[in-house]
């Protein structure tokens, strides 16, 4: 079949919207009609050429929602007409990782996904007979895409796809880090570095689980108003204090129970660890630092009980946990609407990247 898609032909080049060829689903695969997709920093990172796994030409996008229109042989867990969210972190429920209680990093299709192909080693997308690469196993910048069955989460049919697409990456990354990875307890004092799309989701999850104090740290005071709406109780601008760690220790009465780094800066990662309470404070790294960068601190920080850890896709097991997060949104426990600051048709997708680079959007969503 033919499908409209935004194709990335090379590093740093604008996406080109055109008709491409898409082969139908093979055994264990499903064909999904995307209704909406968010544009995320990770797409921009790969497009920039800095992503060591990035291969061109490719169809980017990994934060979508849509409807199943065809299933391949042997597919049992989803059917035609189901509303689904593609999963760049799949959940096979059989591999060593899926069976281990401490991780969500299913490895069932990791190798082929990283190479931009389906689990059988081939691509379903092509242009003039030449293959186009899949991206993060999703390629949601195409109106139709083929996904392995283990890489789709079936969600309730009454969920608005133009909003819940954001659960495909940003919402789950922030909310899951609080709920599934850190397991923040009611009454906790939480500090969030970076009040962008990820940080705001951390903040609203901390509020949802009953944190007593939620301190936001950002160099841009324009972020304060929205962050307060999402549950931030205190704000620290690093440019206005002598020492940001000292300021946090002060305001949290001895250090945070949990800190979350949602910037991707190795200096703020260190601050986030050192702002944790002696004896029990945990710092969770969510932001993705540039290739080759390293973190450092004095080991004494760890010896004295602080914990440093990371979180990918919020620790969520996609097929199990994504439908739950959709429920939280539908029940009014999570606000997604106010985070989607811009919408546009696929033709205007390059504008979404511009808005992101200019810091004008929290999230842009493409509506098919
Ligand atoms: N100190 C404090 N705040 C900072 C600093 C700093 N040194 N540098 C940037 N910020 C703030 C920005 O002002 C902005 O509000 O961090 C926020 C980052 O937000 P976004 O750019 O919207 O990024 P977001 O989508 O939230 O992603 C954050 O997570 O997924 C990763 O790749 C992504 O590493 C990035 C991080
Ligand atoms: Zn698995």
Question: Can you lay out the helices and strands and say which pair or pack?
Answer:
Blueprint: E1 2-7, E2 16-22, E3 29-39, H1 41-48, E4 64-71, E5 83-86, H2 110-114, E6 125-127, E7 130-131, E8 144-148, E9 152-155, H3 161-164, H4 170-182, E10 189-193, H5 197-208, E11 213-217, H6 224-230, E12 234-236, H7 244-251, E13 258-261, H8 266-274, E14 282-285, H9 300-303, E15 307-310, H10 318-330, E16 340-344, H11 349-357, E17 363-367
Parallel strand pairs: 10-11, 10-13, 11-12, 13-14, 14-15, 16-17
Antiparallel strand pairs: 1-2, 2-6, 3-4, 3-8, 3-17, 4-5, 5-9, 6-7
Helix pairs in contact: 4-5
Word description of this protein:
The longest helix has 13 residues, at 170-182. The chain has 368 residues and is an alpha/beta fold. Strand 11 (213-217), helix 6 and strand 12 form a beta-alpha-beta unit. 25% of the residues lie in helices and 23% in strands. It has eleven helices and 17 strands. The chain has helices spanning 41-48, 110-114, 161-164, 170-182, 197-208, 224-230, 244-251, 266-274, 300-303, 318-330, 349-357, and strands at 2-7, 16-22, 29-39, 64-71, 83-86, 125-127, 130-131, 144-148, 152-155, 189-193, 213-217, 234-236, 258-261, 282-285, 307-310, 340-344, 363-367. The chain is globular, with a radius of gyration of 20 Å. The chain has two domains: 2-168 and 336-367, Medium-chain alcohol dehydrogenases, catalytic domain (Quinone Oxidoreductase, Chain A, domain 1); 171-314, NAD(P)-binding Rossmann-like Domain (Rossmann fold, 3-Layer(aba) Sandwich). The two termini are 17 Å apart. The strands form three sheets. Strands 3, 4, 5, 8, 9, 16 and 17 form a seven-stranded mixed sheet that branches. It has a six-stranded parallel sheet with strand order 12-11-10-13-14-15, sandwiched between helices. Bound molecules: adenosine-5-diphosphoribose and zinc ion (ZN).
């Amino acid at each position: 079949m033919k499908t409209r898609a935004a194709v990335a032909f090379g590093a740093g080049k604008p996406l080109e919207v055109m008709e491409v060829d898409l082969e139908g689903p093979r055994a264990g695969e499903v064909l999904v009609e995307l209704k909406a997709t968010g544009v995320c920093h990770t797409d921009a990172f790969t497009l920039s050429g800095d992503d060591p796994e990035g291969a061109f030409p490719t169809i980017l996008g990994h934060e979508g929602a849509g409807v199943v229109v065809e299933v391949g042989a042997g597919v049992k867990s989803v059917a035609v007409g189901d509303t689904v969210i593609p999963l760049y972190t799949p959940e096979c429920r059989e591999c060593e990782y899926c069976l281990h209680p401490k991780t969500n990093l299913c490895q069932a299709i990791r190798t082929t996904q990283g190479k931009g192909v389906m689990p059988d080693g081939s691509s379903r997308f092509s242009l003039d007979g030449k293959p186009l690469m899949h991206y993060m196993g999703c390629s949601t910048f195409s109106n139709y895409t083929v996904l392995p069955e283990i890489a789709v989460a079936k969600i309730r049919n009454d969920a608005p796809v133009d909003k819940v697409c954001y659960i495909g990456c940003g919402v789950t990354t922030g909310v899951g880090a609080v709920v599934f990875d850190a397991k923040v307890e009611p009454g906790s004092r939480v500090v969030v570095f970076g009040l962008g799309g990820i940080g705001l989701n951390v903040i609203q999850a901390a509020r949802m689980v009953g944190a007593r104090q939620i301190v936001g740290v950002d160099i841009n005071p324009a972020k304060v108003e929205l962050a307060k709406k999402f549950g931030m109780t205190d704000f620290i601008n690093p440019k206005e204090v002598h020492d940001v760690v000292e300021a946090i220790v002060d305001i949290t009465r001895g250090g945070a129970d949990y800190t979350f780094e949602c910037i991707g800066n190795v200096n703020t990662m260190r601050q986030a660890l050192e702002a944790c309470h002696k004896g029990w404070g945990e710092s969770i790294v969510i932001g993705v630092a540039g290739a080759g960068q390293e973190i450092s601190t004095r080991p004494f920080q760890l010896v004295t009980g602080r914990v440093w850890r990371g979180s990918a896709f919020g620790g969520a097991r996609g097929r199990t946990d994504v439908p739950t997060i959709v429920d939280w949104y539908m029940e009014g426990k999570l606000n997604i609407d106010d985070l989607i600051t811009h919408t546009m048709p696929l033709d205007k997708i390059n504008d979404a990247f511009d808005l992101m680079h200019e810091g004008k959007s929290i999230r842009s969503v493409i509506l098919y």
